[in-house]
Amino acid sequence: MLDDGIVKDGSYNISHGIGTRCVKDDKTGFAYSDELNIKAIQSAIDFAKGISDSQKNKKISQIRQAKYTPKYPSKSPLDSLTSKEKVNLLRQINSIARKDPKVTQVSASLAGAYTEVMIASSDGVYQMDCRPMIRLSVSVIVEHEGRVEQGSSGSSQVEVNAYGRVIGGGHNGLTAAAYLSRAGKKVLVLERRYVLGGAAVTEEIFSGFKFSVCSYVVSLMKPNVMRELMLPKFGLELLPLESTFTPLDNDYLIRTADADETYREIARHSLRDAETYMRFGPLMGQIGMAVRPILETIAPNAIRPSLSDLSKAKKL
Fold it and tell me: 3-state DSSP call for residue 17?
């Protein structure tokens, strides 16, 4: 547990035991022992079957395992991160939460558990299962103008196979997380703001006025990303940008799809900028055509380059 940037608690323990249940007519007997040895197991069985007055012992059939598909991977979350990595994760959460100056206290905890269970019945059938579990909890205290509020949130995950973390819930982080999830990974996305999307967000900063950060820039939006993540199915709709309006001191600047109209509008403010802008557009188009093939190229390994990496670097 991390409290105010300091690790204040950490523990590790192992527990085990056996439970028995005996049923006769409408009676049920239970017994439990936290010791795993023959004597303790026999004592628990004898105690549980005390509800029966029969002295006969039922002959058990040949022991066989039941066909059962495990719901969770048999990988312990306790070994998925080192102690240093666990502390670093909590410190990252602490740093993200404290970016808001109103936050005065942050507590974060990370807990992991791994349980293995074997169930055997008197007919000789047994089955085994496991349950990995991770729980991340965060609590913050916020103070503003003399008012103090506290909030907390926690999340549990049982499937820890290939656990990944994405810091930042912007459009790039969400795309990376979506692809990791699509590949069957469990992903934790951490975002300090109250809204996800980053540069793709449109917000109502002033009442009645909505502002787009950079969501009008979709030239880098790859068609294969939209197709593979099935974004139209979830509501994605691309709208043509007809014009942009930029407020200035006692004036404004409007740009439209009409190059001549945009030229005249910029020339109202600067003839030199208008001439430069007419050269800027075609130049950016040429640069875009040169960069586009590189966007989906995996970067060569610069530290330990292979022959394939050297060949890719030469082509670049």
Answer: coil
CA-based nearest residue to 153, from 187, 190, 98, 197: 190
Q: What's the rounded Cα separation, in Å, for the pair 201 and 184?
A: 27
Closest CA to 80 of 178, 183, 181, 188: 188
Matching residue, tokens 């502002």: 211
Residue 12 pLDDT > 60: yes
Q: pLDDT tier at 162 (50, 70, 90 boundaries)?
A: very low
Residues 6+ apart with CB under 8 A from 214: 199, 200
Extents of the domains making up the chain: 14-54, 243-297
Return d(Cα 201, Cα 171) in angstroms, integer.
Answer: 9
- pLDDT tens-digit map of 106-127: 888 888 888 888 888 777 787 8
- Going through the chain in order, the beta strands assigned E by DSSP cover 2-3, 6-7, 18-24, 27-33, 64-65, 103-120, 125-144, 147-157, 163-167, 186-190, 202-206, 209-212, 243-248, 251-256
Predicted TM-score (pTM) of this structure: 0.44
DSSP string for 194-259 = SS-BGGG-EEEEETTEEEESSTT--TT--HHHHHHTTGGGGT-------EEEEEETTEEEEEES-H
Q: For all residues of the chain together, what is the average pLDDT?
A: 80
